[in-house]
Amino acid sequence: MAGFVAGAPVSAAVAQIDPSPFGEHRRALSLAEMQTAFDFEPVFRGNVSLPVYDYTAHGDGSEFNVQRNRQAFDWVDIAPARNAIPEAQVDLSSELFGVRMKFPILIAPTAAMVPLHPEGEIGMFKAATAAWNTLMILSTNTSTPVAKVAPSAPGGTLWAQFYPQQNLAATQQWMDTYQNAGCNGIIVTVDQQAAYYERSLQNRNLGGRVRTAGLGQGARGAAATLTGAARYRVNPGRLWYTWQYIDAVRKMVKGPLLLKGIQDPEDARLAIAHGADAIIVSNHGGRSMDYGPSTLEIMPEIAAAVNGRIPILFDSGIRRGADIFKALALGADGVCLGRAARWGLGAFGPAGAQRLIEILQRELVQVAAAAGCAKLTDINKTRVKINFA
Ligand SMILES: Cc1cc2nc3c(=O)[nH]c(=O)nc-3n(C[C@H](O)[C@H](O)[C@H](O)COP(=O)(O)O)c2cc1C
Q: How far is the CA of 15 from the centre of ligand 1 (A)?
């Protein structure tokens, strides 16, 4: 009988309906069983539709850059410690523009969190604040307005990210909105991100590209008819950026201005010359331009160009405490979590995001202790060996 049921057309049909069944899991793992950031991803995948999952996972083009961001961490050794110390002696606290940080970890701006979990950006901000007051950067493409997110986690710090807009009056309006909502730090993302995502193209027969606004709704509607340059997958929307624009924005921002997406030492120098208070070394998690270098590979050169003049934050590929340690050792003052934080929220809501952040905090302390680093300034390039050219 069992053999008959297993071979019946009904079970075959079910397998075809679900394009990505819940792996080999016999049961869904619980929050308490999450041990690493990676544990959250399959749970998140099981909770959401394929387009929502793909929107978080994908990178530009072949996604080589996404993989390279991860692989680069494997090619940096942590120097074996002659002087490991107890974890209790490790204090990785620092201050960033007046914000006290117990750990050098922030939440990167990532768009549209409500499709991940009904509590969306508010849930993420509460989770970040509960995890030792982790600073969160809200995406300009948030699914919840900044005025609602900002007051939702008392005591927390929310900064806001913005994509350049050619219209200066519109830019000023956005800056006013953010600053009136209490976002002191403003992050302007300057990577081109003119990319198209092949995963979304492959979904075209299921309903065209999945963009932020239609996420979760339009995904299976009628395929959009592409016109003009878009027919050839050219997305020119962000190719006009100039330093003069940054000069104009600088005047609008009263607090710290951070430029996100710096991938070149000369751009780092120019960022300082044009008034940036900090930079974020980022390739948008491999979503900006395929076949570029990983951010870890370019970090040492950028740190040399900046030479301690302004803080450097780092993102793209952070999944472990050891990754954070390596980025700090190569010159970062802090790191931002992109996809990893989304996995936490999408898997278990705010409690999941909080636990994920805390796992990375704990892992970082463990690595620092094992490497004999009691404080942030002890984590420097003498603690690592780079194996890429
Ligand atoms: C789903 C998703 C949406 C994103 N949306 C934005 C955004 O709106 N603004 C922005 O500056 N960066 C955005 N990013 C890039 C992140 O801020 C960050 O640079 C990147 O996620 C880091 O790489 P990681 O995900 O491998 O950690 C997004 C990234 C993802 C994965």
A: 33
CATH topology of domain 36-386: TIM Barrel (3.20.20)
Q: Are strands 186-189 and 158-162 parallel, antiparallel or unpaired?
A: parallel
Q: Which atom of ligand 1 is nearest to the CA of 260?
A: 11
Ligand 1: residue whose CA is nearest its atom 6: 110
The pTM (predicted TM-score) of the whole model is: 0.90
pLDDT at residue 65 tops 50: yes
Which ligand 1 atom sits closest to the C-alpha of 109? 17
What pairs with residue 107 in β-bridges? 136, 337
Instruction: Find all residues with CB under 8 Å of 31, minimum gap 6, and list them.
Output: 347, 348, 351, 352, 355
pLDDT digits (tens, 9 = 90+) for 9-56: 444 444 455 555 556 556 778 999 999 999 999 999 999 999 999 999
For residue 270, the number of C-alpha atoms closer than 13 Å in the C-beta half-sphere is 13
| Phi/psi of residue 76, nearest 5 degrees | -120, 120
Phi, psi of 335 (to 5 degrees): -130, 160
| Centroid of ligand 1 to alpha carbon of 268 (angstroms) | 20
Q: Whose CA is nearest to atom 21 of ligand 1?
A: 338
Mean per-residue pLDDT for 92-104?
98
Q: Please say whether the beta carbons of 376 and 104 come within 8 A.
A: yes
Q: What angle do CA 60, 141, 216 make, to 5 degrees?
A: 75
Output the CA angle 321-212-109, nearest 5 degrees: 35
pLDDT band at 74 (very low <50, low <70, confident <90, very high): very high
| Length of the chain (residues) | 389
Helices 295-306 + 64-74 axis angle, to 10: 70
Percent of the chain with pLDDT over 90: 76
Q: How far apart are alpha carbons 31 and 205 in whole angstroms?
A: 36
Distance in angstroms (rounded) separating the CA atoms of residues 319 and 324:
8
CA 360 to chain centre: 14
Give ligand 1 pocket residues (Cβ under 6 A).
Answer: 55-56, 69, 108-111, 139, 141, 161, 189, 260, 282, 284-285, 287, 315-318, 337-340
Q: Where are the domains of the chain?
A: 36-386
